[in-house]
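Hi team,

As requested, here is the filled-out complex form for the adenosine-5'-diphosphate run. I kept the field names the same as last time so the parser does not choke. Let me know if anything looks off before we queue the next batch.

— J.
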Amino acid sequence: PPFLELRDVSKTYYLTKSHTVQAVDSVSFCIGQGEFVTLIGPSGCGKSTTLRMIAGFLKPTQGDILLEGKSITSLGPEQRNIPMVFQNYALFPHLNVFENIAYGLKARKYSEDAIVHDVAMMCQMLNLVGMETRFPDELSDGQQQRVSLARALVIKPKILLFDEPLSNLDARLRIQTRAEIKRMQQILKITVLYVTHDQQEALSIPDRVVVMHKGKIIQQGRPREIYNNP
Ligand code: ADP
Ligand code: ADP
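And here is what came back:
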């Protein structure tokens, strides 16, 4: 079976009895193990909703989500091990860098030794050594983004989801962080689904691109194929 599969997944938001929004409309696609896929489309086309359903923060109105052939649709986020990295980092402001990165390991009842070891490894890999006792408001944007990446990676996720991770960064940091994410993905052989509305970003990093429009998938393929048929 494919590593991750969405089968006819839909999401309707019920605002009032008479007003509904069909945010995602019968979406199906697969992601292979170790693949880097970008999900692209204009604002409001349903990208975030799709990611949140995969992470388990939202339940599909219809359809099924499968991981390695098994349905995860009824599992909560903590049972899926599919973390999401957000554009606003979503770090815990009252926790320092070490505690932010350690959070998921504590929740999973790792031993103190294992936590110290795994957090140190992440700090080394993401150039955060020496910053362990700093708090998020003492960090630059790029540092905060690296902490949020470390926090997601440290739990050895099955798949890592990114929701426009670069939108708060300046041009130089975007390029740097983008390269960082790609490097991590290749070192750790991790599977990535990466949402962006930036076409250049979407076509430059992935193995494959999925294009959404008004809740539906209108195109998918290798970046070159998308380039040639925009
Ligand atoms: P994107 O990430 O591509 O910008 P979203 O998934 O955020 O798209 O939104 C898709 C559609 O669903 C939009 O019309 C948006 O306004 C609507 N929407 C998103 N979240 C909610 C919500 N919690 N309640 C109601 N409507 C929502
Ligand atoms: P994004 O498109 O990056 O998800 P938005 O600014 O569209 O960001 O949405 C921010 C938050 O508001 C999200 O939690 C989203 O689910 C929610 N949201 C978006 N559109 C609506 C809507 N029409 N009604 C209620 N909540 C919404």
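Two things worth flagging: Helices lie at 47-55, 77-80, 97-107, 112-125, 141-153, 171-188, 199-204, 223-228. Residues 13, 15, 21, 23, 41, 43-49 surround adenosine-5'-diphosphate (ligand 1) (CB under 6 Å).

Thanks,
J.
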